[in-house]
Amino acid sequence: MNVLTLEAISVRFGGIAALTSVGMTLKQGELLGLIGPNGAGKTTLLRTVIGVVRPTQGRVVLRGDDVTPLSVDMRARRGIALTHQIVKPFRSMTVLDNVVFAAGHAKTGNVLRALGTRSRSEETQRARQLLELVGIDRYADANPNALPLGALKRLEVARALATDPKILLLDEPLAGLNHIEAERLADTFVRLNADGVTMVLIEHNLGQVARICPRVVVLDNGKKIGEGATRDMLSDPAVVAAYIGKEVAHA
Amino acid sequence: MLPTLGAYEVSLIVIVSVNVMLALSLNIITGLCGQVSLGHAAFFGVGAYAAAVLGNLGVPFLVVLPLAGLVGCLLGLLVGLASLRVRADFLAITTMGVGFVFVGFVRKQNWLGAEMGLSNIPDHGLGDAGFVGVCLALVVAIALLSAYIKRSWLGFGFATVADDEDTSRTLGIDVAAYKLTAFVVGTFLAGVAGATYAYFTRFLIPGAFGFGVSISILAMVIVGGVGSIWGVIVAAVALTLLPEFIRVVNDYKIFIYGVLLVLTMRLSPGGLAGLVGQLSASRAEMPPRSAGAQP
């Protein structure tokens, strides 16, 4: 069953076409890789799914419902969560509170309900479990400013998971991490996916993509140039030319 | 037995109470939700003039209080809607404009007394002790409401909107609803403060709600520590009483408020509350001295 369908998404920023008629589907329980060279439009596509970017053409369909007209917060409340490429923790609160707040999404979705409730015990318990799951529970009471990048990347994941998403969009979660950190976080994604979380992963670390994503969609210059089994796609001449070829050429 | 209060003591208590109410009401908008307002005196003034008009129509004081708050929050709702369209620095300018528009409007309205002011506001009928009691009860109620909001999930949401609106949205927060709620609650309370002020002075002039008043209220919030309820109360009390007790402070009031704002921003952006927090944290980190420790 498709949980997400993107129908001919086009995005223009002024005179520049960031995406041109990109279509793709995401199946329930899938861990889909979204790859392509820099400037391919991967982040723009994920930002279109969450609603930060409005498509000039096309539709975003979530579980059969057209969510294209919906705002970012409405889409988030329908179960789309995004981790940011450039980490964006709430810096005025502790690491734990960042996740507690996200875990309280059922209470914060409506201001009157938010005003009428104070207890945070359930959400705090859930937040501690998630911090443990992503391996940063030792930083729970720290301010995000004191955390290394690897821990902040994990905080992004824990906070997104706390919203109980139907679809988790991961925008370069492994960037800036060393090999061991990247492998550990990638393993976490595999475990979460095995537990039933549907994911889209943007990643330049093709080794990890090949290891954990059975299927990928490939973008180049705002267009989809390939889609299929990861092993096949990474050896596809068009993909090699667009992505790996360019890097080899620059090397 | 309660001591008998003289007219001077009554006026001090009422003015301090009104300023604490105003500072706490702005603290909900600016301190908790991060929406900078440079025109809070307009909501204070709308409440005061609404109270005067309603009072003259024969509405009892205790009924006027919430009605004046409602009129204040109607204007607050309009400004709140404007806040949805503009980012923080533009909102500051917008609210400052609202303050000027309010004073400019009242100055030309004969039915509001225009430049000459609005007098003949009826007596509240509670006596001095009763009125002081109402003022103190309002201060306590607003402080408790502020503390409740801050600890509720609404206050948690305010904190994230103040921190990063865009990230809040991706976590399902209806940022517009949160901002409007902050404006509605904060300006309602400013309207109530205005009604209290109107029934105390029983004479209103437009100049009592000018830009300087907005800046004074903001200074109380910033010097106390944005978002801190006790810090804002302490700052509001101190900044109201200092000009009363120290003449030179009264002569240079705006100058001193300006210096305090600059010093707070430079030395302790978290204000008084931030300073106390830093001092407690540094004391907690100091190793305990043992009796036999070598120097």
Query: Class by helix and strand content of chain B?
Result: mainly alpha
Query: Structural class of the secondary structure composition of chain A?
Result: alpha/beta
The helix content of chain B is: over 70%
Mean pLDDT across the residues of chain B is 90
Distance between the terminal alpha carbons of chain B, to the nearest Å?
Answer: 55 Å
Biggest sheet of chain A, in brief? 6 strands, mixed
State mean pLDDT of chain A (0 to 100 scale): 91
By CATH, the architecture of chain B is named: Orthogonal Bundle
How many structural domains in the coordinates of chain B? 1
How many helix segments of chain A?
Answer: 11
Instruction: State the shape of chain A.
Output: globular
Uncertain stretches of 5 or more adjacent residues of chain B: 290-295
Describe this structure in words.
The complex is a heterodimer of chains A (251) and B (295). Chain A is α/β, with parallel strands linked by helices and 251 residues long. In chain A, 41% of the residues lie in helices and 25% in strands. Chain A is built from 11 helices and 10 strands. Chain A has helices at 42-50, 72-77, 95-103, 105-108, 111-116, 121-133, 149-161, 179-194, 206-212, 230-234, 237-250; strands at 2-13, 16-27, 31-35, 57-62, 65-66, 80-83, 167-171, 198-202, 215-220, 223-229. In chain A, helix 3 packs across helix 6 and helix 6 crosses helix 7. Chain A is globular and about 55 Å long. The mean pLDDT of chain A is 91. Chain B has a single domain (7-285), classed as ABC transporter involved in vitamin B12 uptake, BtuC (Orthogonal Bundle), CATH 1.10.3470. Chain B is built from 13 helices and no strands. In chain B, helix 1 packs across helix 9 (211-224) and helix 3 (61-83) packs antiparallel against helix 8 (175-201). With 295 residues, chain B is mainly α. The radius of gyration of chain B is 20 Å and the shape is globular. Chain B has helices spanning 7-32, 40-56, 61-83, 88-107, 127-151, 153-163, 165-170, 175-201, 211-224, 229-245, 247-251, 253-267, 271-285. Chain B is 75% helix and 0% strand. The interface between A and B is medium-sized, with 34 and 26 residues.
